[in-house]
Design goal:
five-stranded antiparallel β-sheet, seven-stranded mixed β-sheet, alpha+beta
């Protein structure tokens, strides 16, 4: 065979073998490429979002931007003619938390960073050791310090940025998260009502944790929503830069009915009064009788929201964190007598509708010498013996027997159920007022057939007679205030409130009014529970209390008309009433002729004893009425309310005129009538 033919045969054989190899290699490479394409597709398309997040975590991190919690604003509009400028009881002040991305800080610089931070932050030896430990941990977000002020923030920035730049460390290896801390421009003022929030927030939601008071009650309005910002880990990125993912949404602001100046007056006078009476504690509440707006709510000893931990960690101090005017129900004592005569007058009206004779005549002589009543083993007593009294005398002298006789007639003619229903529905006893604070007590309005926890019946034959003079019934001070406002506003039962309006600022800076109580009319929104005639009778009767011969002459406000009623009730100690421990109260209307407010003052356990020439110093007329007088006098001056009794001053004062002073002519006529009935010489 020729050489040329051999080469052709070899070429054919070689080409066939190589072709197979090339084909296999191509198929193999194509398979690898297909797998690679599939893997790329999986990474980029199917799992693209997951791998992007993993990559972003290596280069970016998310910082949460805080929101401002809503604030509480004083009622500055109460003083006529003055600008309605904002005065806040609480504000949010910007603070800073310092964090470290310790993985971005080279090991060789960590000790130096820790040393400089300890100097700027003023750390002690143990705190510095803890700081070094935190920086040594592998973490992308380790908290190093909390609640730093702006000066400390600036000092840290001025040191860190040049240091990081010089050593080629990412500038946001140390970064700040801003936050807001509660601050109180008026200090402890209104402390129990406001309360505060804990220093440490909820770890999951970053929401504040209220300790009580308005902060807790309105938490759903006060809280906002955090914003989010993304930062890049890079030496060229500063702590402040980043992409805004979402803006923070601030909480709503709450405009209170309480005025900061009236609140300060109430707290100052209450503190002096409690200390003078050597009482365990005391509280005072002022309310507009027409709108139900609470103008001041003071309590002593005080609660300072800024030092809340001191109170909650001390069992002896935690009592001072309550709002006792709504949480503590006590027997009202003789304050109940004003309600008793109102119920009796209402009974007259009910009988008139039934074409029946009246229950009693408020101007007529009623025997009060017999102290015995059905179901009572012991006779009732008055502070002084009276043979006969009418309604005005009974209020002035605070007669237990007269009130018990009235209720005896009510129960006999209209029944127990009518009496209890009137107290419940028309005067709000035994039910919550609905004031915007947590833990309000309903008190205790006895119910026939129902038992106490000890198994004893709440209602017995003698119960109505005890209730008539303020015993065997428990009420809060806010319930007393609400009931007494009926005698100031024409007979309407108003709802107490602390809120004028709640306003939220939206992202576009528009204002959204969530709650608006500023346009309510008390006659439209509240029920008239006693007639105009009955209202006038009771409102005039309680004017005798603060005049000579009344139980609270120490509560008289010179230059103004006032009315009211005292109350002193023994407290239960070791299972029985102890007259050495009392709740002493006074509730009044100022000015009586044109009411601006009703005010109740209660002292818990004032010092028991007798002041020679003056009287028993633990009684409401002795220790609580003067506090009422001082708060009222200063408040009237602040509000700019002119004198409505220009001749109502002490005898000997050049302004005094016995014939022109408010209620003195009526007082003389009442005394003459009393003396005639009771044989006085």
């Amino acid at each position: 065979m020729k050489k040329k033919d051999l080469d052709k045969n070899f070429y054919r054989k070689a080409t066939s073998s190589d072709y197979k190899r090339v084909l296999c290699l191509s198929l193999f490479i194509f398979s690898l490429f297909s797998i690679l394409i599939a893997q790329f597709y999986t990474i980029q398309i199917i799992d693209g979002e997951r791998w992007t997040k993993i990559g972003d975590k290596q280069h970016y991190f998310i910082v949460k931007d805080p929101f401002k919690r809503g604030i509480f604003i004083s009622n500055t509009s109460i003083k006529k003619g003055h600008p309605d400028t904002h005065k806040s009881f609480v504000i949010d002040v910007q603070k800073f938390h310092l964090y470290a991305d310790s993985k971005s800080i080279p090991v060789i610089y960590r000790d130096e960073v820790a040393e400089q931070l300890s100097i700027i932050l003023g750390l002690d030896k143990n705190e510095t050791i803890e700081l070094r430990s935190n920086l040594a941990r592998k973490s992308r977000s380790r908290k190093l310090a909390m609640w730093l002020d702006k000066d400390t923030y600036d000092t840290l920035i001025n040191w860190w940025q040049p240091f990081a730049r010089e050593n080629k460390i990412p500038r946001n290896a140390l970064f700040f998260v801003s936050d807001y801390q509660r601050s109180y421009p008026f200090g402890r003022t209104l402390g129990q009502v406001l309360h505060t929030i804990q220093k440490v927030k909820d770890e999951k939601t970053s929401q504040a944790l209220p300790t009580g008071g308005l902060e807790l009650y309105f938490n759903k309005y006060l809280k906002g929503k955090e914003g989010k910002r993304r930062l890049m880990r890079s030496p060229r990125n500063s702590l402040e830069t980043g992409d805004v993912i979402s803006l923070p949404q601030n909480g709503a602001d709450i405009y209170l009915t309480i005025n900061h100046y009236l609140q300060e007056i109430a707290e100052e006078e209450l503190e002096k009064g409690v200390q003078k009476a050597k009482a365990k504690s005391g509280w005072a509440v002022m309310m507009d009788p027409f709108t139900g707006e609470i103008l001041a709510l003071a309590q002593y000893p005080f609660f300072n929201p800024s030092d809340y931990q001191q109170y909650f960690n001390n069992s002896a101090l935690i009592e001072n964190t309550k709002v006792k005017a709504i949480t503590d129900a006590n027997e009202p004592g003789s304050i109940m007598k004003a309600i008793t005569v109102a119920v009796a007058l209402k009974a007259n009206e009910e009988l008139a509708r039934r074409n029946a004779p009246p229950l009693f005549d408020p101007d007529a002589m009623m025997p009060t010498s017999n102290p015995m009543f059905p179901g009572r083993r012991k006779p009732l007593k008055d502070t002084h013996f009276h043979s006969f009294l009418d309604m005005n005398m009974a209020i002035q002298k605070s007669s237990n027997i007269y009130m018990a006789r009235l209720v005896e007639k009510i129960v006999k003619v209209l029944g127990v159920d009518w009496y209890r229903k009137t107290l419940y529905e028309d005067f709000g006893l035994g039910q919550k007022t609905g004031i915007e604070l947590p833990s309000e007590s309903i008190g205790l309005l006895p119910t026939p057939g129902r038992k106490h926890p000890n198994g004893q019946l709440e209602w017995s034959v003698s119960t109505p007679y005890s209730m008539a003079m303020g015993h065997n019934i428990q009420v809060t001070s806010i319930q007393i205030l609400r009931a007494f406002a009926v005698f100031a506003n024409g007979g309407y039962l108003v709802k107490p409130t602390l809120i004028k309006k709640i306003v939220k600022t939206n992202a576009d800076n528009s204002l959204e009014i969530i709650v608006d109580n500023t346009k309510t009319d008390y006659k439209t929104n509240n029920r008239q529970v006693i007639s105009k005639e009955s209202f006038e009778r009771v409102s005039k009767a309680v004017k005798y209390t603060t005049k000579i011969g009344g139980s609270a002459s120490r509560g008289e406000i010179w230059g103004y008309s006032e009315s009211g009623k005292t109350g002193t009730a023994d407290k239960v100690k070791n299972g029985k009433y102890d007259p050495h421990y009392v709740c002493a109260s006074f509730v009044g209307i100022v000015p009586a002729n044109s009411p601006a407010f009703v005010l109740v003052v209660t002292l818990d356990e004032p010092e028991y004893g007798y002041e020679p020439g003056q009287g028993r110093k633990h009684m409401g007329g002795f220790c609580s009425a003067p506090i009422f007088r001082e708060i009222s006098k200063r408040s009237l001056e602040y509000l700019g309310i002119p004198s409505d009794d220009p001749h109502g001053y002490p005898s000997g004062d050049p302004r005094y005129d016995a014939n022109k002073a408010d209620w003195l002519p009526e007082l003389r006529l009442l005394k003459e009538k009393y003396d005639k009935w009771n044989g006085a010489k």
